[in-house]
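BUG: 3D viewer hangs when loading the predicted structure for this chain

Environment: internal workstation, default settings.
Expected: structure renders.
Actual: progress bar stalls at 90%.

Input used:
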Amino acid sequence: MRIAVALLLLSCAVAGAAEEPVALPVVNPGFERGFEAWANAAAGRFGAFVSLDRQVKRTGEVALRIRCPEPATSPWLAQSIPAHGGATYLLKAWCRGAEGGRAEAALKIEFYNEKGENTSGRYSQRLTPGSEWRELAVEAKAPPDSIRAAILVRQFGSGEVWFDDVAFFRVGEAPVITVDPPRIAAVAGTPGRFEVDLRLRDAGQGTPPRPEVMLLTSEGRSLPGVTMDLAADGPRLHRGTIHAPALAPGDYVLRFTLPNGHIDCRLAITPAKRKPRNLTEEGVILANGKPFFPIGLYHVSPSEYALLAEHGFNCVQGLNTTNEARFAESLELARKAGILVDVPFYIRGEVAKNLPLSLDRIRRFKEHPAVLNWKIIDEPDLRPEIIDEVADAYRKLREADWDHPLLLTIASPPSYGHWAHFCDILQIDPYPIPKQPLTMVSDYCDRAKAVLQPWQNLTAVLQCGWLPGPPANQPTYEQARAMVYLAVIHGAKGIFWYSMHDPGWDLTKTPLWPRFKELNAETAELGALAILGKPVEVACDTEEVHAAAWEREGRVYILATNPGKDARTATLKPRAGRWAAGRDGAALRVLRGEAEFKMREGTLLLTLPAVGSTLLEIGG
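Structure tokens produced before the viewer hung:
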């Protein structure tokens, strides 16, 4: 489940006809004036990889050449252009590569709001061009609060590509009114109170016109009982508070109208009672009646299930196929290997189109002992074509099976709260290597736990790599351990790894693979504490050190990690009482990792090396 580079395209249903394409000014579109107006060029971030080529060009005197031997660098140039929320834009450019080259060319449109936040974006297809010039294009709709767009030309992989004649168009006019957020989720049987921002395309004289609100069923029938409080914030912006009646599970529409147009906001209502039997009230997965901490892996062939089991994996992303015989065979191979299966329902990236097959698969295989859960879709927040199909699928799949949990993997932390309404297991995929701090893992876990119900399971998908590099994006063994500790300390009750196979990637031929058996053995120890132990609240005086504790069978176990680049010392103590250890740490021992410690008067002084993690035991 590779991290998607495209962010969520916030799509809305808008009245009005499409307009003829309107060309928007791009400064220096053919690079005839060097790198003028293009960020990251010349002495900038990617200056070493970009140049002007007077020999290879499509029109004019020059073309842009991007040449980079490092696959993970992916250099790009960008230009900022004003944009309007709700409008649709088209970016085009011509590109070519070297004869027999392997580098890929791509375009991207990004959108930014008044705070400078990158709120969405979309890539074109990646093209591996030959020596002939070819045109690339990408179209994207601006989120309601957009004030500018960034247009990017980018190289992926190792090698060189050329770009020339960049053009940018508005192909869909901004609607007369936009709504943010464009979709809302709520719980059945409870009156709703929702906050929205309504932006008018045109600023009138004096007080802006006031939009009206209607509540509609998915079939367009009007429902009573909805009201809206509005407060104007400038000539174009209304901030609204919607009061909606209690609704039954289903899909609805909040329609905001002006005399000359309207905008629809989707309202999805999830059942009030939806916890499956195979999840405890604490979010622990039950597999064949017993507490289970998944240790899984993505992109694995069924022929490798036994190999995974030998290396300590107990779970796997299943086979994504319409072939029922192959699917059934894969479940049997998993059962024989002692592997449980996260069953995917998103063949060809579809949801609604797959629903009949998904329901039939539940009917046929829900009693199979290798089935752990059903996965509706991977990263729907990045798939605008199916984003509004998930809620209905969740409700129907839940009715078909009240035992097995339904899973979503979500890429964007700001959207966790929305998607938590339509899953039982939330998978998150923080991938910090090579450019982000390891604490990206704990940050994502914290944001997820803040919006999940206690019974919902949080599983962290961690990276074991998918790019061979250089530089590769595989963590070191120490970094991998630290990520596991960060995830468990911050509430994860399952770990998956991405990935076993990707183009040019085979995990078994990488430096981390020989150590996975011991890594998974340690993960299983930590996981057992997280799902079987009683949490003990810990106070830590050093923010660089992350720690949590559990009591189990008369002993207390402390997990601690220092994901930073320097050694750190921290003082740890329970928020209530003191550690029940003997004098000077006599009853304290290190079970995993390296650490220096002192125990005095019920307070633990702990020193961890850089990227160091430890499991301590008190008592016994």
